[in-house]
Amino acid sequence: MKIKHILLLIFAMFFSCSDDDSDEYQNIPIEFNVPSNFPALAYNLETNPLTEKGFELGKKLFYDGRLASDGVVSCGFCHIQEDAFTHHGHTFSHGVGESIGTRNTPSIQNLAFQTTFMWDGATNHLDLQPIIPLTSPIEMDGNFENIISMMKNDSSYKKLFKQAFSNGEINAENMLKALGQFMVMATSSNSRFDKYRRNENGGTLSTNELEGYAIFNQKCASCHATDIFTDNSFRNNGLPVNPALNDVGRYRVTELSEDLYKFKVPSLRNIEKTAPYMHDGRFYTLDAVLEHYNNGVVNSETLDSTLNSNSTLGIPLTNNEKTKIIAFLKTLTDNQYLTDKRFSEF
Amino acid sequence: MKLQLKKYVAVIAMALAFVSCSSDDDTTTTGEGNLKLEFDNIYKTADLAFNTAYTNSNGEVVKINKAKYIVSNIVLTKADGSTYSVPKSESYFIVDEEVTSSTLINLPNIPAGNYTKVKFGIGVDQAQFNLGADGQGNFFTLAQTAGMMWSWSAGYKFVALEGTFTSSSATDSMFMVHTGKTGTDYNYTEVTVDLPDNALVRTTITPQIHIMADVSQLIDGTNKISFNDGAMVMGGNKLAQITANISNMFEVHHVHND
Q1: Are B135 and B222 within one domain?
Q2: Residues B11-45: pLDDT tens digits?
Q3: Which tens digit of pLDDT belongs to each residue from A11-36?
Q4: Angle, CA B33 vertex, CA B32 and CA B34 arms, to 5°
Q5: Beta strand B232-233 with B207-214: parallel, antiparallel or unpaired?
Q6: Which residue of B has its CA nearest to A177?
């Protein structure tokens, strides 16, 4: 009797495992719900439908150091979840061979709602974005041919590609699609601010925070627009040019003089966790950021017109206003996202 | 009765007409065959040779040591005006002067017929970029291996022409021309070439279309590119000028039908 039960149990175990061991394509769709306070999706899900196995493959790729030439520097090396996928405390990140970049690691969240990527907008499709850090000699220095060959010799990749894509092929297209699925899923929409916007439980903002939100709407939201907090534009926000870097920003992509020193307006979500700030990580605190807008903006040919109105440079902010704006910005911290096991390395 | 006979004659005549028409359509033009496109790189009137001095019309002397371009979106036009498009995802190729095999592109599964024109793109088109990874297959891998990935912008180099130049103020200085999608422009272009003789694709005949690709046209064509005022051409309006020059770069010399 007992033996029979044990046999049954073993039998059941085989069944429960069989799905995952199968080499068959597993079309288990993931439904993507756009939060009601968000703008429309920019990403076209039709060309890359989300599936459980596609997402799982994307996550595995995101955390796999073998994509890099040194076998160590994965995407997740510089994009750490608890810091909203930035590189905690690093002004610049170090890639393979201790190479140092020249721009601050941007956060990863709600990218499916954005139309341009990288500080200079070097690409406008989320699927293709990973190519840049993956192949950059100072970041991952990865080589697609080596990566494909590594995956073709790895049993878990062999299985996952078959499960994730109907043609089952281990190639650049499917690899980039899987990474795309992981990034599309990385949605931060459950901060206290979001709950406030959707009138949900836990969505209470203090008087200070609400006043901060009002000041923000008046003085910051023309660029940090919508509940994604970026209008996807490129602007020169009046940072003095660091001569050691002379980062020309958007000009690199367009070679138009009007784009000199312009950088993408970043989202402000989880900003409490993403210090240091600006494209070159020059400010360590939110107070320093706001003080720049209050008193640090320098004029130049391409300075954004909104920062030079009525012959006043920058955005005048009192200390009281700054305190309230920072209180508001901290309501954008989404602990559910920062600890969501679906996106965690371990 | 006579009238009826006339009717019969008319009907038979019409039937014959139809039959004779249909026999114009060669009964052997069914099924599928292969078609080969040969890209024979030249510099003006000579076969392209690396590290050989060529004098451009602006007086600059160039020596080429790299000549590569992406050929895509191949469309074939039949004598009757109908077209056959090679499936997009199977229609991306890198022609590399250094890799002899890459200069001969084999197109399988082409419907049998008499073809009069070939259209192809140089580069990767905007519609493909808008699809992201979809439809790219393994082309990014091939491109990176061939040095044709424009990795900093997550795209491709559509044309890579490199070498050295000598001008009034430079001697054997390096130059590089890389075209591709920029923040302002896709720099993709399509070229249509007429065939001097029809390419007769049959199950038993693989025509080979011998295309002369005059790479001098890229820099010394309608738009003259001077390396003296900027030898690293990878952006700005020079890319648009080079892309415009591509329309005069290709010409079909002859077609082999065997």
Answers
A1: yes
A2: 555 554 554 444 444 555 899 999 999 999 999 99
A3: 444 444 445 678 899 999 999 999 99
A4: 140
A5: unpaired
A6: B133
ipTM confidence: 0.86
Same fold, A19-187 and A192-336: yes
* Total number of domains in chain B: 2
In chain B, which residues touch A (CB < 8 A)?
A: 129-141, 144-145, 149, 151-155, 182-184, 235-236
Domain that holds residue B1: 1-30
Domain shared by B7 and B66, yes or no: no
- The fold of the A19-187 domain, in CATH, is Cytochrome Bc1 Complex; Chain D, domain 2 (1.10.760)
DSSP string, B85-154: EPPGGG-EEEEETT-GGGGEEEEEEEESEEEEEEEEEES--HHHHHTTTTT-TTHHHHHHHTT-EEGGGT
Verify that B18 and B133 share a domain, yes or no.
no
Same domain, B109 and B145: yes
Q: Are B68 and B146 in contact (CB under 8 A)?
A: yes
Q: Is the pTM of this model over 0.95?
A: no
Residue B57 CB: number of other CB atoms within 10 A? 10
Is B209 found in the same domain as B85? yes
Q: Does the domain formed by A192-336 have CATH 1.10.760.10?
A: yes
Indicate whether B9 and B46 sit together in one domain. Answer: no
Task: Indicate yes or no: CB of A176 within 8 angstroms of CB of B151.
Answer: no
**Chain B contact set for A176 (CB, 8 A):** 132-133, 136, 140
The answer on B193 and B108 residing in a single domain is yes
Contact (Cβ atoms closer than 8 angstroms) between residue B146 and residue B96:
yes
| Predicted confidence (pLDDT) per residue in B86-140, tens digit | 999 899 999 999 999 999 999 999 999 999 999 999 999 999 999 999 999 999 9
Per-domain boundaries in chain A: 19-187, 192-336
Residue of A57, A128, A129 to mutate when probing chain B, most B C-beta within 10 A: A128
Please indicate, yes or no, whether residues B58 and B122 belong to a single structural domain of this protein. Answer: yes
Strands (E), chain A: 234-235, 263-264, 308-309, 312-313
State how far residue B237 is from chain A, nearest Cα, in angstroms: 9
Among B132, B155, B235, select the one facing A47 at the smallest CB separation: B132
By C-alpha distance, the chain B residue nearest A44 is: B131
Contact B154 A123 (CB under 8 A): yes
- Cβ atoms within 10 Å of A211's Cβ, excluding its own: 18
Q: Is A96 helix (H, G, I), strand (E, B) or coil?
A: helix
Q: For chain B, what's the residue count? A: 258
Chain A hits for B151, Cβ within 8 Å: 131-132, 135-136
State which amino acid sits at residue A316: P
